[in-house]
Amino acid sequence: MEAHREDIVTVPAAIAGDALLAMAYRAAARQNVLRALNPGVFFGYFSVCADGQGHGNHTTYPGLDWGQSAEALLWLGRTAEVLASWNYVKSFQRADGLIPFAILPNLAGTTSMISERYPLTVDARGAVFTHWVPGNPLRTLANVTFLLLADAIWSQVGDLAWLQGQALHLRKAAEWLRAQITGDGLIHGGGFYLERPSRLEFDGVNQCYSAFALTRAAALLAQTGQTAAAEQCRAAAGALTAAFRTHFWAGDHCVEYIHPEHGPITRHGLTDVDWAAVATWIASKAQTTVLWRQLKDNPGFIYSGMPGGIATLPETYDDWEMQHIDRHDLAAMGRVWYLECWARARMGDRAGILQSLRQVAAVGQANNWSWMERYYSEKTGDLGQYHLQYYCEYPANFIRIVHRFASLPE
User: Fold this and answer.
1) Can you give the pTM of this predicted structure?
2) Per-residue CA distances from 202 to 132, 182, 399 (Å)
3) Is pLDDT at 219 greater than 70 in this prediction?
4) According to the model, what pLDDT value does residue 410 have?
5) Which residues 6+ apart lie within 8 Å of 8 measured at CB?
6) Cβ contact 384:327 at 8 Å
7) Which residues, 6 or more positions from 120, have their beta carbon under 8 angstroms from its beta carbon?
8) Distance between CA 60 and CA 137 in Å, rounded?
């Protein structure tokens, strides 16, 4: 295969005239996403941190991290590596359709205790299907990520033979996801992309993303001739949408999550659920209008200069919402920032997207074009000195946001 030169990174026309954004795009690609590739592990392998150290240099996280970096690599022309990584993750899918949220080969066949209290069980091949945090947050994340990455690959590659070769795996992944939906149209699984707060048992972001993923799965399955499975996915997405508009609406903003003991949780101000509801169009038109006028220019989601805070009142979370463990996820993260920009794109707010991109670029520039995993709000202070460097989430999402959303008309 022809070697790639990492110095050849073409800045998209949508930001080419903005010097800061152009520099940030090149740095996100060269010094972060491309740097994380490591064929010494296997062709197609990439780590979640650009230095190959943070979170391990042989690990893969099909729960979100993998999908974000993989799509960025697609935009950077590294399709072969992405397809190889896809095949690797696909090989871990369980017979019932569940994808592991983590693959830790160095811990294969072990059970270890986290914080001396919580078991982390890794199967004989290195797959982790159950989270160590009580309540098993992230349980649906890998399947949603798997379906959405398949959609991203199909959108860019357009190879029907490839898609047909994935049909069984996609159908099984969608079947497992649909099986998590209750008779009331709520989907089990707290903490969709957060471990703490765990958002047990029904997470609003999970409801939004699952509805969107099942809609995209329906389109993929229809392309492969699986009309019955496609219709089942469409029906499930419709049920999730209807339930969200009823159970996740608190009058002027979204319910963050529905706890099995404490009921609907709405007291942390606006949250990432509000961004998700707008981004995925799961909120009704009237609900979206109410949300958007509060979200559009709200500074409460900016933590230490970075967009992507999970709530506008982060100081109001109780210890029980964190499982009495820590507050590491009470932060600004690239996964939330992506939802913000997706929502802005849905509402035609290109100016807001560019402003947000510049905020992320400025922080990266000040840190030698490296981004941390989390940024904390001044309202909460430094939560545990958790400052993992060289994390690829903000860089990967910078690339995704530029390509997906920054080319809106003025």
Assistant:
1) 0.96
2) 18, 10, 31
3) yes
4) 61
5) none
6) yes
7) 107, 111, 112, 113, 114, 128, 132
8) 18
- pLDDT: which is higher, 386 or 259: 259
Distance CA 379, CA 304 (A): 10
Output the pLDDT for position 115.
87
Tell me what percent of the residues of the chain surpass a pLDDT of 70: 97
With 0-12 / 13-18 / 19 or more C-beta atoms within 10 angstroms meaning exposed / middle / buried, residue 364 is: buried
User: pLDDT at position 192, please?
Assistant: 97
Q: Which amino acid makes up residue 406?
A: A
Q: How many Cβ atoms are within 10 Å of 146's Cβ, its own excluded?
A: 31
Q: Which two tokens stand for residue 101?
A: 């949220």
C-alpha distances in angstroms, 363 versus 20, 280, 304?
11, 28, 9
305 has a pLDDT exceeding 60 = yes
Q: For 81-91, what is each residue's pLDDT tens digit?
A: 999 999 999 99
Q: Are the C-beta atoms of 295 and 343 separated by less than 8 Å?
A: yes
d(CA 189, CA 203): 7
pLDDT of amino acid 203: 98
Quote the tokens at residue 193.
């992309």
- Nearest to 229, CA basis, from 172, 180, 186, 184: 172
Q: What is the mean pLDDT of the chain?
A: 95
The pair of three-digit structure tokens given for residue 301, joined into one six-digit string: 């989601």
Sign, CA torsion 13/79/48/117: positive
11 C-beta neighbours (distance < 10 Å), count: 17
Checking if the pLDDT of 259 tops 60, the result is yes
